[in-house]
Structures are given as C-alpha cells and as structure tokens.
C-alpha cells in the first residue's frame, strides 16, 4: 500500500493584493518532494488546522494589526513551524534587546513605551512600531522634524504599541540591507534589499537582488541564531543587517515569523525548504 502523502499548509493572509513569489516555488518544490501542500488563510475560521501534518507560517503579513489574535491562532495550531514560542518572542521587536544582552551587535534603539516622553537623535532618525512588518508605520525624519516625529510616537502609543527610535543608518542608501537566509538550521543564501525609507520607492521585487553576505555578516547572523532562547533548529530564519556607523554590520531584525525567504534568488533554495519540511513532518 502506498503511504499517504504528508499534508502541509502554508499560512498566508487574505486580500494582500499581491502574492509572495516564494509561494508558487515552495508549492512546486513540496509537490516534487512528495508532500501535498496548500495555501490557507490564517484567520479563516473554516480551516481544519489540526488535519495538517505541519502548518508553515509564510505570508501572514497582516498580523501586526491583530497581534493578539494572531498569537491565539498560533497557540491553537497543533503542529506549527516556526513554533508558537518562537512567534510569541519574535513578533515584538523587544527581542532585539534580548539579542543585544546576549552580545549580538544590534542597531542602537531607544524604546519609548506608552507614556514615555519622546526623545530623538540629533541626526536623521527612524520611528517605527515594536510590532510591525513590511515597513508599515516606519518613517525617517530629519533632526528638525521632532514635532512630526512626536506625533508619530503619540499615534503608535495610542494604538498600544511601543515606539522605537533609531539613528537612520545612511549607508543603506549605498550598500542596501543584507538579508541572510537560513533553512532547516543551515545557511542557505543571501540577498540585498534596497533602502525602503529613502525617496525612491521601487516595486517590491525590484528592491531585491542576490548577494552573498560578507563573512562578518554571516558570522553575526549565525551567532544571533545560536543565542536564541529556543532549542531546536528553526525551519526558516532570516537575519537582516545594516552597515553601522563604524562600517561593521549590525542586526536590524531577526525575522523568524513570516519572512520572505526570497526563494527565487537561489536555484536550490526551494528544494532546501521542501527537504527541511519533509524532515520536520517525519520527525
Ligand atoms: N535605523 C534604520 N536605518 C536605515 N534604514 C532603516 C532603519 N530602520 C528601518 N529602516 C528601513 O526600513 C525598512 C523597514 O524597517 P524594519 O526595521 O526592517 O521593519 P519591518 O520590516 O518589520 O517593517 C528596512 O528594511 C530599512 O530599509
Ligand atoms: Mg524588515
């Protein structure tokens, strides 16, 4: 008798208006690996999540406005990758402070909790929410724009979110942002992302190109993963770095929840993901 093919759901969001190019590549590679994979919307009440051998969180990019509901959903799914504990830790950028305490070079950040008076930097700076994704509500300000920045902080506080203030690392305009992608606990590939907060806002895919990380960026990314408060290797992880003032990379984000893995920028990446999913469902 032929054993049943494992069944896997890739969790996405409804009505994004566009799809992540990762999805088609992942579905094809999973099919080739003998896995029956379908897309499913995370907040669709009709999806029988418990019927899947694994639910893989992918393009759930609308969770930031409903953080609590998203974590409730994640806690309710019996077999989820990355697991609930990882998502609970990673969907709030306060995790950057944990990484910093563990010795990871992290971008300088001021945390303005609701009620804290705003203070800014005497150089171009960024205000963004602690629960955020896709550059939403992230904005760059000049040192003279403290009035507008304070209003931005007040809006984030009114929405119940901690505001983060960081120096704007201008090197991003030249060197871009380096993303380091890990699949199944192993380094897979790297991409460069164009600056998102500058004048030119390009189309989503135009902003990305394949670029291997420097040895230093790769070492920092590996170190960041090694100090995470979780034991087993993660199915997927993406560490985003910017070049700091002194020229050395600093971590901007550790994306362990719903990162684009930019699978189209490395010929082997879709197969790596499918193989890692196959290991996860058989384990
Ligand atoms: N401190 C910063 N200096 C320069 N660019 C920044 C800074 N913070 C954010 N950006 C830009 O804004 C984008 C979104 O910010 P990020 O921290 O990655 O939040 P998210 O991707 O979760 O929305 C980044 O990809 C980067 O281009
Ligand atoms: Mg980002």
Concise account of the structure shown:
The chain is an alpha+beta fold and 283 residues long.
- What is the average of the pLDDT values? 94
The H/E string reads EHEEHEHHEEEHEHEEEHEEH
C-alpha termini separation = 22 Å
Q: What Rg do the Cα atoms give?
A: 19 Å
Domain count = 3
Bound molecules: adenosine-5'-diphosphate, magnesium ion
So what's the overall shape? globular
Kindly identify the CATH topology of the largest domain: D-amino Acid Aminotransferase, Chain A, domain 1
In CATH, what is the class of the largest domain? Alpha Beta
List the helices and strands and how they pair.
Elements: E1 7-12, H1 22-32, E2 36-41, E3 54-59, H2 67-76, E4 80-81, H3 84-90, H4 95-101, E5 110-112, E6 125-129, E7 139-141, H5 146-158, E8 163-167, H6 172-175, E9 177-183, E10 186-193, E11 208-210, H7 215-226, E12 236-243, E13 249-255, H8 269-282
Parallel strand pairs: 1-2, 1-3, 3-4
Antiparallel strand pairs: 5-8, 6-7, 6-8, 9-10, 9-12, 10-11, 12-13
The protein binds adenosine-5'-diphosphate and magnesium ion (MG).
The site of magnesium ion has 2 residues, from loops.
What does this structure look like?
- By secondary structure, the protein is an alpha+beta fold.
- The chain has 3 domains: 7-91, Rossmann fold (3-Layer(aba) Sandwich), CATH 3.40.50.20; 95-105 and 171-262, D-amino Acid Aminotransferase, Chain A, domain 1 (2-Layer Sandwich); 110-167, no CATH class.
- The chain contains 8 helices and 13 strands.
- Strands 11-10-9-12-13 form a 5-stranded antiparallel β-sheet. A 4-stranded parallel β-sheet has the order 2-1-3-4, with helices on one face.
- α1 crosses α8.
- The relative contact order is 0.17.
- The mean pLDDT is 94.
- Magnesium ion (MG) binds at residues 240, 253.
